[in-house]
Amino acid sequence: MDLFRSEEMNLVQLIIPVESAHHAMTYLGELGLFQFKDLNSDKSPFQRTYAKQVKRCGEMLRKVQFLKDQLVKAGISPSKGISAGKEIDLDELEVKLTELEIELSNINSSSDVLLRSYSELLEFQLVLNKAGMFFYSAQSKAHAQHREFEEGSSIPIAESIESPLLLEQELLSEPSKQSRLGFITGLIAKSKASAFERILFRATRGNLFLKQAELDAPVQDPATGEKMEKVVFLVFFSGERAKQKVMKICEAFGANKYPFPEDAGKQAQMLDEVSARLVELKTTIDAGDRHRDNILSAVATDIELWDSIVKKEKAVNHTLNMLSIDVTRKCLVAEGWCPVSAEVQIQDALERAASDSNSQVVTIFQVIKTKELPPTYFKTNKFTGAFQEIVDAYGIARYQEANPAVFTVITFPFLFAVMFGDWGHGICLFLAVMWLLINEKKYSSQKLGDIMSMAFSGRYVILLMSLFSIYTGFIYNEFFSVPFALFGSSAYQCSDSTCSTAYTTGLVKTQSAPYIFGVDPVWHGSSTELTFLNSLKMKMSILLGVAQMNLGIFLSFFNALFFKNDLNIWYQFVPQIIFLNALFGYLSILIIVKWCTGSTADLYHVMIYMFLSPTGDLEGNQLFPGQKYLQIILLLLAVIAIPWMLLPKPLILRSRHIKNSQGHAYSMLRDSEHEAEDLNHEVDEAEEEEFEFSEEFVHQMIHTIEFVLGAVSNTASYLRLWALSLAHSELSSVFYDKVLLLTWGFQNVIIIIVGVIIFIFATVGVLLCMETLSAFLHALRLHWVEFQNKFYEGDGHKFAPYSFSTIDEE
């Protein structure tokens, strides 16, 4: 069974000729079964041999990302498929990326300048239109007033109304006291218009005239490039000081000022020139955009291929930096871990690399003997991978220890279903997960959100959870809390109309055999329903818990057997299995005997007085002959098991350590040839044999206390199966009785529709979402704490091979 124990690993040394190193790293990256060790950990990234190549690839990746950003900005989707069989030289690709970056940067900068000019001219056009309308309306009013004045007065008027509106009037004799009326036009953000008006009024003490006109649509601001709502303003003022104040206020508010001629003819001429210029700029901008889109369309077909090539090249050079160079600088030395089953594939890849690079020397592949703990590697698929992730979230398995994921595949969804048992809710979960499975290819190629990604990665876990929920729903005989007689008729019948509220009378047993499968539907709705289901589910939770804890202890036995640790077998496994089963295994037997015999014995009383009064008479709580003497024997075994776990192991380890120390006091003389090797071997053994009796004794004492107390607390913890199952059943019953049936009784279509909608939302939101999450987390806790702590060390490190398939994830 590949998943029960991790793959056997070897520490391997590779001596690779420099000329074939690049090909070797490429083929090993495609294979993805070799984990390199960093032999240059004492060097900084800049001191390594291939630092320049890594930096070069990083710069190329930056250019590729720049092109991707331009594609996103232009709304062009890159081709998803990577062109196969298309070989591209890295130097040529670097030159091409540089040329494309420079060309697109120039196009973007020119486009930005043109767009800024276009935005400014567009604003200028709007100012000419809006301000021109104001001057035209003012001039029209002046003509009308002039005609009225001529008709009502005989005094000749020397001045013509056609003269400029703001003509200087040199009426004052002193030139220093002459004042000129001026104006400024421009645009300002609509959100700043009111504050702009107030500041102008205060700064000039009301000696101004302000005219504002809102634009019909938002315009693009030349400075920021963002579209915003703006207002055209026209400010009249008198004097140079007022002009300076108005100019500073405009700058402070970020207003764009534009020149405006007083003469109507010049206004029309300028408006024509601006319109013509806008048309020219629009044509130029469109031509630039088309040219950029053509370039990007050509880039889109190959961008994914370029990205893959550069990322692989960077990964190759980054891995080469982990290798050490021998003194001749002709070979690279690599060390790393690989599965024993993959050694032939790795050697084939290295031979192919030497052949393709025309190397005269083949790569040397040799296994190194080491005491270092190898990494843990399990071969998983899309089905078992999610269950392995559940176990790995607690801790990575130690090298070749028993893997809980093998049993988690069944026990996890089953314990979930014990708490979630309702075949109606299970069908809803099944339909939801079937949608994910049908669209598996579609979703696997998409980038999903956090919640959707978790649901999709655990789709097979949810599938088993739904199937087991349907199974336990049939056992509980609940379909949205409604019982059905699917497996034949009930074993009980109502003798009168009061049987639904009766405790024992009113129900008559009509057949000797019980209901074929699951809970008899007659229990639902009776006054004894809660009492019966509480008893059933509580006892069932204890049975399941004791069974799973026994499985965990037996897995510790298989671990000890595999690693040939006889101390753990005799002084850990044996006393643990005796202690657990002398108490809670015995309780499980009593539960089964009581079910089979129909006894009315009180198991609480039996277990309590087993400790308080072991020799006392059981009276009416005796389930079988000799029960009292069996209880005394089991209690004695449980008491003996505690020092059995605590004392022998540290004492035996101390004895072995003393014996080994005495054995190494004298040794044979060595010949000079092997002296250094033997000395190193002895140093390793001495380091390994360091032993502190006090530390070992304290460790064993903690382990003993943890197990003894945990045997009680863990068994009690499994009662959560009963509690959550009961809560799920009662919530489902409340929603059905108090929402659906209650509204159905009103015989009103609107009330019924509202009731059905509330029932659906309550079922989906509370029972199918919140209860699913709650049951999932509780099943997770039972596996991590109650099950895995019996045997699982979880202090290993995961096998992380050098692979091109993980480049995008990194």
TrEMBL record:
Write out the GO cellular component annotations. Answer: vacuolar proton-transporting V-type ATPase, V0 domain
Q: Tell me the membrane topology, using the record's own terms.
A: Multi-pass membrane protein
Q: Name one Pfam family in it.
A: V_ATPase_I
Keywords per UniProt = Coiled coil, Hydrogen ion transport, Ion transport, Membrane, Transmembrane, Transmembrane helix, Transport
From the Swiss-Prot or TrEMBL record, state where the protein is found: Membrane
Q: GO terms for biological process? A: vacuolar acidification
| Coiled-coil regions listed in the entry | 83-110, 669-696
Q: One GO molecular-function annotation for this sequence?
A: proton-transporting ATPase activity, rotational mechanism
Name the InterPro entries on file.
V-ATPase_116kDa_su, V-type_ATPase_116kDa_su_euka
Membrane-spanning residues: 414-438, 459-476, 542-562, 569-593, 629-647, 707-729, 749-770
The protein's job, in short, is: Essential component of the vacuolar proton pump (V-ATPase), a multimeric enzyme that catalyzes the translocation of protons across the membranes. Required for assembly and activity of the V-ATPase.
Q: Hey, which family's this protein in?
A: Belongs to the V-ATPase 116 kDa subunit family.
- Its name, as the record gives it, is V-type proton ATPase subunit a
